Structure formats: C-alpha cells, structure tokens
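BACKBONE STRUCTURE TOKENS:
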Amino acid sequence: MTGRDGPVLSGDREDGNAALELVVLAPVLLALLMLVIAAGRTTIAQGAVDAAARDAARQASIALTESEAEANGQASAFAALRQDGLDCVPHVFIDTTEFGAPLGQPAQVTAQVRCSVPLADLALPGLPGSVMLHASFTSPLDLYRERGTG
C-alpha cells in the first residue's frame, strides 16, 4: 500500500509477540500460583496440627487417670482440628506411661498428632497427592496431685 508520502506500513513486526508471551507465561504463572497455594495450605495445616497436639497434651495432663487422659486428649485434638476446619483424618496418640510415677516425682504426658493434608486437588505435576504433617507436645503432670493408672 502506498500513501501520499510513500509506503504505509500496516503494523510493526512485534505485533503478535504480546499474545505469544502470554501463552508461554500463563502456565508458568499458574504453576507458581499453585505452589504458593500448596505452601500456604501446608503452613496453615501445620499450625492447626501443632495447636491440636498442644491442646491434647494439656487436656490429658489435667486428667486424674490414664484412661481419662487418653479420652480427653483425643477428644481435644479432634475438636481443635475440626474447629480449624482442617480436612484430614487425624491419628492421635497420648503417651500416659508416666501416670504411674509416685507423687513428688516429675512426670509428663505427651500427645502426638499426625494428619495427612490433601494436595491432589491442585493438579500440579510433581506435587504429591498429600503431605503427612506431624506434631508432638509434652505437658507436665502436677507433682503433688493424686493420679491413677485406671
């Protein structure tokens, strides 16, 4: 095409580059976003598992018997995870072996919480389908409060 002052260029050579760059960068940006979501999900979930272990150990440490400590600790851990909205099936173990210690001797109870957090819904290649989170917390038993093994 020619104009009054010479040839008229219909466009620059780089007209299609912006669309091509978007097509190339979009999957990379989407993958980066998914990684950020996965990291955020596991960080929040780890905080919830830590809190559940802490609550379970505390509730178990104020119980009077081993069986009550186990029941209270497990119930507390499940309630804490449910309250935090964590989507997992927790495994809670309450170690009450030191409940038999004589009065005046230091003793403690330990709660361990394991929880598998799903990541499969993010559909990012190379990302595991789930990640196992673990937390443990120890709480002292009162030195001079009577406690039983029943």
Residues 15-140 form one domain. The helical segments are 17-61, 66-83.
